Structures are given as C-alpha cells and as structure tokens.
Sequence to fold (650 residues):
Amino acid sequence: MALDILKERGVPLERQVFTWRDMVRTPVSKLDDDAFTRVRIILMNGIECFAIRLGHGLSWMNEELRVPLAQMRRIDKHQQTLVNWLLPPDMSPLETTINYEQVAIEVTASVAQHEPDEYLAQVYRFGLLEDFDHLYRFSALLDRLEGKDANNLLNSYTDIRPGRPTKEEHRAPEDDIRRHYDHKTAAPLTKLHAITLTAAEFQTEDYYMNFGPTFADPLARQLYAEISAIEEQHVTQYGSMLDPNESPITKWMLMQATEVYNYYCCAQSESNPRVREIWNRFVDYELGQLHACMELFKAIEKRDPEEILPAELPEPIDFESHREFVRQTLAKEVDLRTRGTEFIDKSEEGPDSPSVQYRNQLNSEGSPSEIVAAGYRWRPGTELADGRAKAAVQQEVSAT
Amino acid sequence: MKTVMGMGKNRTGIGTSPIDAKATIEGAEEGVPDVEHDGAKIAAIRAEYVREAEPIGSVPPPTSVKGVVKAAGEMLGGKEPVVFLDKLGERAAFERSGVRLYEAFIAKLEAVDDTCGVPIDVVRHYHDEELAHFHLVSDAIERMGGDPTAETPSACVVGVAATGLVQVITDPRTSVIDALQALQVAELTDNDGWVLLIDLARGLGQDDLATEFEKALKAEWEHLASVRRWMKEAVAKKAGVEEEIATVSA
Fold:
C-alpha cells in the first residue's frame, strides 16, 4: 500500500470538527448498496468503539495521558456516530445481525490469510468457523421469525450452512486464552490484525447484549443470549493475543495505526462514492491523531515511533467473498477444539475436561442454537420457497 | 427527496449475481444434505414460555371515589369495567400517536415537490381531529374514574404494533405513497378500535359516551376513505393506469 503513515500527517486535531447535521447523514440502502458497504460500516463502528473503550481503560491507569486521551476520544466518538448512523432504519436488529456475522466471517477470513504468524492464523481460522455457524443459526431465526431471506443482506457472497456447531463452542475460560504475540518480534501487521479482530468481536458482543432483550420471541432471546456468550469468548480469545507487556502509550499508538489502516482499507475498496468520501476523510483524521500520539510516544518513551510502526501500511483487508477459503477451513478444521492455548481434535477432549463440563451444564436444558436451526437448510427466498418445506407447513396447518 | 422509486441496482435476490448465488445454493445443500423442515421444537419453546408468562401489566385502579363506586357497582352486576378502561386507554394512546403520525406526514408533504394529489389542508384537518379524539377519550377515562395519563396494557400493545408505522412515516427516504400505506394501516385499526369501544360503552350502559364516540367514528371513516382513495389514485397514476382503474371502480 502506498500510504506512508510516518510522513503523511493528515488533518491536525483542531480541524477535526463536526456538526450534528454532518454526523447524521442519509443512510446507505439496504436494497441497493453492496453488502460489503454495510460490512465496512459495521467494522469501522467496531474499531471506533474499541478505540474509545481502550482510551477509557488507559486513562484510568495513566495520569499523564488523561487529557490527550479525552481529546482524541471525543473525536473518535463523533467519527463513530457518523459511521454507525450510516446504517439504514429499515434494517431490523436481526437483519443487521446477519451483516455483523458477515463481518466476522469475511474480514476474519482475509486476516487469517494475510497473518504472518502461523499460530495466530490458526486462531483466526478457529474463530472464523464459529462465527460462520452463528450466521447459519441467525439466518434460520430470520427466516423462521420474520419470514425473511438472509441472503438478501449477504448478496450471495457468503455461504449459509453450519460451521462448528454453536452448542460445541461453549468453553471453559481457561480454554479461550491464546498465546499472545511478542511485541518485540511480531510483525506490525500481526498487531494491527489482533486489534482489529478484538474490536470487531467486542462490538458484536455489545450489539447482541443490547438488542437481545428487545426481541419478544423467547427463542430469539435465548439465541442472542447464547451467541453473545460466544462473542465474549471471542473477545477473550482475540484480546489474549495482544501482548500485555506493551506500554500503555504503545498500545494507544498501535490503536491509532489500526484506525488509519482500517479506514484506508475501506477507502480502497468502497463502491459507494458518498461513503468512500467519508473513509478518505477519516484516513486523514486518523493520521492527524496518530501523529499527535507519536509525539506523546516520543516524549514519554524517549524512543522513535518507527521502532513500532511500519513506514507503509501492510497488506490490506480484502473486502470480498472468501467462500473457497472458508469451505477449505471448514473441511479441515471444524472438529478442532482447544485445551488451554493449544488446538486439539475433538476426540482428544475427554468427558472430564473443563470445557466439556461447562458446555454440558449450559446446554443441559436445551440448546437454542440447535432448536432454532433444526432441519434448516437455506433456500433462495426462504425455506418456505422450498417445495418440501411448503408441503410440511401445509401438513402442520391441516393438522391443527 | 432526490430519487423516485423505480428500476435500479437492487442487489437482493439471487438474480443479481447468478454465479455467486449458484455457489451459495450449492454450499447450503452440501452443508445440510438431509433436510427436514422442523419447526416443532420452536413451537415447543414458545409454548413453554407462554405457559410461564406473566401479563404485560395491569390497569391502574380508579383514581376517584366516584370511579371506585362505579367500578364496584358494575362488578356486582357481573361486568368488568376494567376492560373498558383498558380499551379507553388503548384508544387514547393510539389517537395520541395518530396525531404524531399526521404531523410527520404533513412535514413530508410540505417537503416534497409532488404531494401525489394529497391535499395538505385536509391532512391538517385530520390531524386536528385526531387530537380532538385524544382529548375526547381522555375526558371519558376521567369520567369513568380512571387516570388518562396512565398506560394500560392494551395501550402498551397497540404502541408496539404501531412502532413500524412511525418508522415508515418518519423515514425521510419513504415516499408519500409509502406514508399513505402506513396511515392506511393506522386508520383501519383505528376505525375498528372505535367500533369496539362504542359496543363496549353500550354494553356497560354508557350511552352518552357511545353517542360521542359515534361522532368520532364518523370522522375516522372519512379519514380512512380519504387515505384509501389518495393511495389508490397515487399508485394508479404512478403505474400509468389511472384511467383503467377509474373505469373498473366505476
């Protein structure tokens, strides 16, 4: 990528300003815009949300960073609003959920293929197959609750079929911790990837927690409760890849670099010109924030940010269908489980293992993800468009 | 509004991208080869929760001594005035929301270049009538000894049902026809709501109230008839079949 983040200084902080009219714009179209436009919007909302969250955490533990963090959090907040408010009001929370899972599949698939650290690439593939299954379960719910076709949101980019069964994804906390990258030796891209995925999963967990109780249907409430629990596991998993030995200012600077990187990736691939203009504007905003942060890094650490940051941004995220990669991963790795930080085959998971005991307890009164998708196979136009399904429904109606 | 709904780059459906769609269909078939439509477990979960569920809420007790005496007297006769109070609360809530729906519709009409034949002054008049009906029902609730500011269970339910109507009319991207469609749903519900309320009032011997409600119903009939006509004419014009539909209707 051609952007030299060490030289390009972007827009100074004092010129990063907003109005309510600027933040609340005409949203994108559920019908006419490409699924990846929604994917990018959801991802960037997650990135901004995480930047704010991290900023709060750091400011609670760092006297000298409190004011600059507050200043930049305020800009991030307005950026997040502008981005998230691009989602249209005619998408139900469940429809939006479908695109959330598409983010978790397609962005993670791209990251897994570009990740230079083999172990961490495995972590991404492991998480990918779980979100892939969530998409299948939520698609069944969308069909069976609202009578809608998930593919209308996915635009045929992503398969709707089971992955690692959600009911099998519940693990003991100790089996969700992964080995972290070594901040001294890891490639910059590894760090940007880990922050990106942690951010994406964090917002997904929050989204499900906020919208789960808004459903009237008890099964929908159960399914959101169940999958939100897995998203918390994913935050634990991806968050544990971040090296805890990095200094606070280093973490903050890497967060800023991640924001530049992600906005730049979005700008390179965006099909909606109105949205692309926003991504380009925020690349410049984030460069301004990154350079302000770099000055603080120099003052605090007495080191050169070049020791941490790459001159040029690494390989971009491919906002495109990764169907074949996902299918191959599914075929090879669906039966993987974890023991501590390591991946094992499910045959090695003994009945007394903490994760098996944990999931057996949770599922002992039934599994929402199994119930919602019992016998579900996606069909164009919903399962009701399928002849056999129609006949079965007819039979049910006649029987009552 | 810059755009007019028409043929465009809609990306939904499998026709947009036949190659990708084919792959998605194959993937679904490969992933779940032995399919059997099974909604029985979902029904069982729903039934389990239905059996355990608590009501949405309750109707508040009468706020005046007169109301308590009236309620007690009618209950002795085997009647349930609480049902009437609940339904009065529903009507009050719906009329109040109706006022806001018409406000949003007026804002849309004032902003568009073409109101599709909808006369704004008439819509304003309907708005004022919805407000008058809200006051009428609120007064009735007080006369029955109830609290017109309380939200009854039926008011709550009808509010949930109307959520989509608010979304449709306030969305800047929706057309005048879209808004009329939402108003039609509202007016259909409203008309039947008034009919039921009049029957209840008569059943409880509240003939004075019933007579007043009948006047409101008459106005609501006119709202519904107008909304139906405006929508039909606007859609027919847009589809270029104005004359044909007029002939059929005649």
Notes: Chain B has nine helices and no strands. The interface with chain A takes residues 8-14, 16-17, 20-21, 23-25, 27-32, 35-42, 45-46, 48-49, 160, 167, 171-173 of chain B (CB under 8 Å). The two ends of chain B are 34 Å apart (CA to CA).
